[in-house]
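The instructor's notes for this session suggest beginning with a concrete chain rather than abstract definitions. Hand out the sequence below and ask the class to guess, before any prediction is shown, which regions might be ordered.
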Amino acid sequence: MSLAASSRHPMRVGFSFSRVWTMMLRYLYLLRSSWPRTVELAYWPTLQMIIWGFMSQFLMTNSSWVARAFGVFLAAVLLWDVLFRGQLGLSMSFLEELWSRNLGHLFVSPLRPSEWMVSLVAMSLVRVVIGTLPAALLAIPLYHYSVFDLGPPLIAFFFCLMLMSWGLGLAISGLILRHGLGAEGLAWTLIFVLAPISAVYYPVSVLPSWLQYAAWALPSSHVFEGMRAAMFDQVFRWDHFFWALGLDVIYVALGAGAFLWSVHVARQRGALLQTGE
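After discussion, reveal the predicted structure:
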């Protein structure tokens, strides 16, 4: 290599802390510019502490419940996955359009936002069935437990959780469209903030009294309370079902409204072709 070429491409000799610090600054600026990334750092440790703290507190004061906890835990895990996969399935179908930079192509077609929304909801149902049915069937030979033994109440629980997941998924998709791909972590994290107050693994009564009001405002809390009543007392709690259904209507209406409004604003701002960070 000639001397002139060497001067154009200087050798990077030795380890440089300044280059390390330069790259750290880049990542720090990215972190600072996206509040979802910053919140996520403390999100999971805090969430795990809250959930298992309430769980431990409940088991310490209800030892008789432990003997029957196996089936309840498996049913709770499977039903929670319906809620999580329903929301994530909708959000993932939406995110795939953003990742492929396809929004502009969609909206130069005759496709209406409401039609797109219905297709996202339908794909969410398909993804949930594909994702949760094998797990439910596998639990039968592995653990000799079938969630299908719940009978007709299982259909009601499934329906209520799917409705809630669609409301949340539409609202989250609207937020991502509004704030860009820097907020895509909301698709994986936001729903879990509801887990501690959804009474998935323990009754609502375990929560502090002030937090119980928030729990009863969630359709999922009524579903899981109804699940435990069906398993322990062999009764279907119609009151929990109607509360969950009524709240679901509100959640879906708010989620659909947020999604359609975000699409409208994105069109006005010309953001359908600019879906970066």
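Then share the key points. The mean pLDDT is 79. The chain has twelve helices and no strands.
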